[in-house]
Design a protein that fits this description.
By secondary structure, this protein is an all-alpha fold. It is 81% helix and 0% strand. It has a domain of 50 residues. It is rod-shaped and about 145 Å long.
Length: 120
């Protein structure tokens, strides 16, 4: 059987109070679980400009050092190549020179042995 009693002011007032209490409880719980974000710190514009300029100068410095390193290593490679070529060319002559020195030392030793009468 349907309830045909009219809704009174007391019933709607009670529902409103209960709804407000629930809303307040939900808001408090939400605030507890989700604390507000910390305020953003503002960096002054001149400080931002200074940081940008310093970082760009640092980047240029690093790039310059890389270019300097590459050119230095390239010239070092060329120098080492020239030294190697010179050693290869003079290496043949030095072998001949060492052979000549060995021959002359052998002759001197033989001459000294012959003069001293030492027969080894």
């Amino acid at each position: 059987m349907p309830d045909n009693r009219p809704q009174g002011m007391g019933n709607s007032e009670q529902v409103r109070v209960i709804a407000e209490q629930l809303a307040e409880a939900f808001i408090k719980r939400f605030d507890r679980e989700h604390p507000p974000a910390p305020p953003e710190s503002r960096v002054p514009a001149p400080l931002k400009w200074a940081a940008g300029i310093i970082s760009s100068l640092a980047s240029l410095g690093v790039g310059g050092m890389c270019i300097w390193g590459v050119t230095t290593l390239s010239s070092l490679q060329q120098t080492v190549t020239r030294i190697d070529e010179r050693q290869q060319l003079s290496g043949d002559r030095s072998d001949d020179r060492f052979g000549e020195l060995d021959r002359r030392i052998g002759q001197l030793e033989a001459m000294h042995r012959h003069e001293s009468g030492d027969q080894r």
